[in-house]
Amino acid sequence: MTKTKRDKIIRGPKSDNLMAYLFLAPYLILFTVFIFVPVVLAAFLAFTDFNSLEMPRFVGFDNFIQMVSGDIILMRYVIPNTIRFALVVGPLGYALQFLMAWLVMRIPRRVRGFYTMAIYTPSIAGGVMMSVVWVVAFSGDRYGYLNNFLIWLGAITGPLDWTQHETYLMVIMMFVTLWTSMGVGFLSLQAGMLSVDPQLYEASEIDGVTNGFQEIWYITIPAMKPQMLFSAVMAMVGTLNAGGIGVTLSGMNPTPRYAGQLIQNHIDDFGFIRMELGYATALSFALLAAMLLVNRVVFKLLGQKEDE
Asked: Is the model's pLDDT at 233 over the cut of 90?
């Protein structure tokens, strides 16, 4: 073998690797600048006392100790509210996504796109709809849609301030969130149902499957586990990361009597109102840990087994 041929053989793989790195470079640069570096800096700030004006002062684990033993609002209101909100909105929203996707798949193909867009639209116009429709609907004066309707029915004698009342605020937050929950998860489930081989349903009839529920349980769900896993993760993480809805509806942060105060509101309160950025960052890492735990549970329930 000549020296020239041997050099080509040796340099070939290196040249290919260089080309691969060049193609990856834009993503790696953006990932490093906008994700990796901020996460590293946030990890440092979680162990500091920082108000955005003075240099961060290292305090060790004081922020996390304060979180567990000194933050009464967190333990008494924020964590219970977040858990209750997530346990209701997450599973129920996920079930509604699956149900709506299944119902849309049962209608004729020529109008399916119209219904899909109608169901998906509230999720992409959530902020606008919330401010234009729901704030007015639950307004505390006589011109609020709900108050006006109930007064007309004779159910109440005077207007109620729905979003300022601790009894009603959380229920309203759950209702509005469920109304806007038909987002990417809904589309993913619908795509998963479209990917199921129709011959499986034909074969199932021969095996004794006689109704729609049996089709869902024995055919649809096993055939679209990846899409179900993705939708479940998005639903649970979305509920844990919610918070803006309570502030928008009530018009204040903290929410009235902390009735709708979720972990994201608590982070915003300390980070952008009290300017205690070190403690707010520690709260953010606690939220990240909760999301990782939830993802782990969802993967255990819906993830593919190794022997499958």
From this structure: no
